[in-house]
Amino acid sequence: MTGKDRVLALLLEADGEAISGQEMAEKLQISRSAVWKSVKALQKEGYRIQGVTNKGYVLLSESEKLSEAAIRKYLGKKYEDCRLCIYGEVASTNRTLRELADEGAKEGTVVLAKCQTEGRGRRGREFYSPADTGLYMSILLRPQMEISDLMMVTAASAAATAEAVEAITGTETAIKWVNDVYAKGKKVSGILTEASFSLENGSIDFLIVGIGVNVLEPEGGFPESIQEKAGAVCQRDQCPEGIRNVLAAEIIKRVLSYYRTLPERTFYPSYKEKMLWMGEKIFVHTADKKKPAIAVGIDDRCSLRVRYEDGTEEILRTGEISV
Ligand code: BTN
Questions:
Q1: CATH number of the structural domain spanning residue 108
Q2: By the 8 A CB rule, do 158 and 178 touch?
Q3: Same-domain status, 81 and 97
Q4: Ligand 1 proximity of 210 Cβ (cutoff 6 Å)
Q5: Are residues 99 and 128 located together in one domain of the fold?
Q6: How far is the CA of 7 from the centre of ligand 1 (A)?
Q7: Domain of 40?
Q8: Which of 16, 41, 42, 227 is 20 to 30 Å from 154 at the Cα level?
């Protein structure tokens, strides 16, 4: 962390109380003038820090800015090993994290960005990623598992994200198979998991779990192409303060917790319970048409069992469905 981030961490820790420049200088083992410079820099970045006579500085409210210090505060000790890399604008957090992974970044490295210029979704689609209204993050995993079990990580991440959104915003969530998170009938989050394989032994080298959440509806609404389907997890006037930092921490914690207990399938009850359209009529998308079917259920490998109109059944390992 930079000196500025460490000053911010102390202000956040003080939780709305004033903390003196002297105390911060002693704790961080830097000069008072260095503390002052950090405070000025933070104010310039938009943090509402007020000087209180004879008491020091107080952080008035956590701004909506993504910050390592704020995310760390919510992550807590158990996840202090995570490396957090926060960027302004990137093409795609998945792509940035892939570069770090190729350079040897360790498991638990997380890339977050304010906005993405080339946010990617499943099936080569674009993921709309404007500044300030969304959360865009990618988590690096280095699993030792069968390639056929990769789906579990995606499903577990969907359950983790849905639960995190619900815990932080109070908005009820559901999962559209395989891994889209829905709230109030609209898609509020998507997950793109990308793997890199080692050619030498055919094993998984690393896995990137890219998660995008529409936190707020953009001013002027979503673009026309996604207007009908896309939604946000909270309303502008009811949004918890510092939501993107809190939500990022909550998602990281839950994804890593489910990942670490993957052999026990701890995510499975939640994933299954949140699954949309079970027992209902759906359409299974094939290359050139949509085939009507009934969604029969989810099996213990997170595959979807469907029954077609002619009575035949199929187990779908991956794919796309709609109603
Ligand atoms: C989908 O809905 O099809 C998946 C969307 C995944 C979007 C996230 S945002 C962070 C990460 N970076 C990307 O380019 N994509 C994922």
A1: 3.30.930.10
A2: yes
A3: yes
A4: yes
A5: yes
A6: 32
A7: 3-59
A8: 227
The CATH number that applies at residue 20 is 1.10.10.10
Q: How far is the CA of 211 from the centre of ligand 1 (A)?
A: 5
How far is residue 101's CA from residue 81's CA, in Å, rounded to a whole number?
Answer: 16
Q: Report the alpha-carbon distance of residue 97 to residue 110 in Å, rounded.
A: 7
Ligand 1 pocket, residue 92 CB under 6 Å: yes
Q: Quickly list DSSP for 234-259.
A: S-GGGPPTTHHHHHHHHHHHHHHHHH
206 and 82 share one domain: yes
Cβ of 121 below 6 Å from ligand 1: yes
Per-residue pLDDT of the chain (323 residues; tens, 9 = 90+): 778 888 988 888 887 788 999 999 999 999 999 999 999 988 887 777 888 888 899 887 655 688 898 899 899 899 999 999 999 899 999 999 999 999 999 999 999 999 999 999 998 899 999 987 999 999 999 999 888 888 999 999 999 999 999 999 999 999 999 999 999 999 999 999 999 998 877 789 999 999 999 999 998 899 999 999 999 999 887 887 789 999 999 999 999 999 999 999 999 999 999 999 999 999 999 888 999 999 999 998 999 999 999 999 999 998 999 99
Q: Work out the number of other CB atoms within 10 angstroms of the CB of residue 117.
A: 10
DSSP 106: P
- Total domains in the chain come to 3
Q: Is 306 in the same domain as 221?
A: no
Evaluate the omega torsion of the peptide bond into residue 178 and state whether it is cis, within 30 degrees of 0: yes
Separation of CA 207 and ligand 1 centre (Å): 14
